[in-house]
Structures are given as structure tokens and as C-alpha cells.
Model the fold of this input.
Amino acid sequence: MKSALKGFACREWGPLYATVRTALVTRRWRAIPMTLAAVCLTGLFQLVQNQDWGYQPVQNIGSVRAEDPVWLSLLRTPLSLFVPALDLPVWGALAQILLVFGIAEICLGRWRTLAIAYLATLAGTLYARVGIALGPDNPLGLPASDARVVDTGPSAAVVGLAVYVCWRYRARWTAGLVVLAMVVEVLIKPNLAGKEHLAAILGVLALIAVVAWYERHHSPPPGSEGGDDPEPGVRPGTRSWKPPITS
Done:
């Protein structure tokens, strides 16, 4: 039983663990500069928005609601990734960003990490508008009052990045567990945040389908020379891995 669990852990997390450990041992905190900046920015937003003078400026630059004009939501969305929810402990958001953004930055590179985080957050933001248009009587809909609720902040990006990194490193059971946890969240508490998390996952799954199709049709034949991986990490169809590109 013990050997079976060890074998499962090696198959599920071995390549991911080796990539992250190598980067942290060789480069330490220099391996995740974007993540550290994101943690500091999130902490700064939390500090400012809890001041009498700071709440409204933070809302103006980083809080997104479905009732806002689309152009304003798109303008605020990049910074909304780093505005923590007021009704949740900030340490949870900081821990999520440090762990998931840090792993993603090492495994995918900082620009891919930011792009996928933005895609996941944008998927949740756009879903909120569609859900409110559908109305509460539709299984995919939302009540009109949710138009005034602030979007999820960094959590949708964290969920989307977790699913993408797990797919890239063939940690399929872990990815499935993340998706299952988000489904259970919606079943237990069907609020805007939970449904936006599912929308973020669907957005990332659509990206995964596109990337997988591209790799299937454009990757060099097995054994051929030349050609780089479309992304750092696991070469499609194998469990091999290369040192990550960090920029």
C-alpha cells in the first residue's frame, strides 16, 4: 500500500516537484519575482482599502462589478487580480498567490502566468454579465442583485492557473480534484464567486483544448531533432520535463 501511494505521488507530482525544487534551489527568491511583486501589491491594496481615505480609490482602479460599463471593467480587470475581498482574511489571498502564482511562474514563465491569470479572471467577469442577463430562473443564471457584487479578485486566477499547471505537468488527478472542489463549492453555496470560479475553469479548459490541438498538429514527430516545446514543462504525450523558462 505504501509503495503504491509513493508510486502514485511520483507519477502525479514528480515532474512538477522536480521543476519547482530545481528553480528554488538554484535561484531561490529570484525564481519568482513577479509572484513576490503580486503578493506585495495585494498586501498594499488590502492596507489601503481598509483606510477611510483609501477604500474608494482602490474601488475605482481595481474593483469590477457586472453593473459597470464593459470598457471600465476591462480597464480595471488587470488590477482586480490583486484586490482581495474585504469579507475574507487577506492572509488566504496572499498564501494562494504566493503558492499558485509562484509555481506557475516557475513552470510557465511570468508572461504566460499573467496571461492565463487574466484569461481566467476575464472569463469570470464576462460570465457574471451573461448570468445576470439569463436571470435567476435559469440554472446558469444569477439574480439581478449580483450586478452590484464585486468580482472574485485573485481567486479565479488562482483556480485557473492551478488547473492549467496540473494539465501541463500531467497531474490529472489533482486537476480533477480542483474542479470537483469548485463544483462542490457551488452546490453548497451557489453565489457569484463560486460560479465565477467555474467560469474561470471553463475558460482555461478552452485554452487547454486549443493548446492541445496545436501541439498535436504542429509538434515534430517523435525522435526528430529541432523544435522547442510550445511551453516549458512536459512534452506532450510523455512524462519528461525540461528546466523551465522564467521569462
Remarks:
- Residues 225-247 have pLDDT under 50 and may be disordered.
